Amino acid sequence: MEEPTVLIGELKKGSAELLILSLLEHAPKHGYQLAKEIGELSDGVLKFYPASLYPTLYRLEKRGWIQGEWTDDPGQRRKRHYRLTRDGAGVLAEQRSTWEQFARAVSRIAGLNHA
Predict the structure, then answer these.
(1) What tens digit of pLDDT does each residue of 31-57 get?
(2) What distances in angstroms separate CA 65 from CA 22, 44, 53, 60, one per listed residue?
(3) Could you tell me the sign of the dihedral formed by the alpha carbons of 36, 38, 43, 48, in that order?
């Protein structure tokens, strides 16, 4: 039997784009902010580390779904803030719909009433 953390890891991989695009919907954020918010909003169930987060950000940027911009704040390290693009907003809407359908189907099969 697989460990729950292995299953969570696989689910995390499949939902990383949706989570990142969702968090960028209202305001630009840098990578550390994204990782921190995902951890906090999931009550620590989902944790993203730089080794997995940044390649996803680069891939989203290459696809044109997010756009990164370097910012210099006095007295702080240079940071790359990412924002959702118009194309990214369209992809986010599609991914939300697909995820909702998937979650409903899994819930029906698994006998879950709250999802």
Answers:
(1) 999 999 999 999 998 888 888 899 999
(2) 12, 26, 15, 5
(3) negative
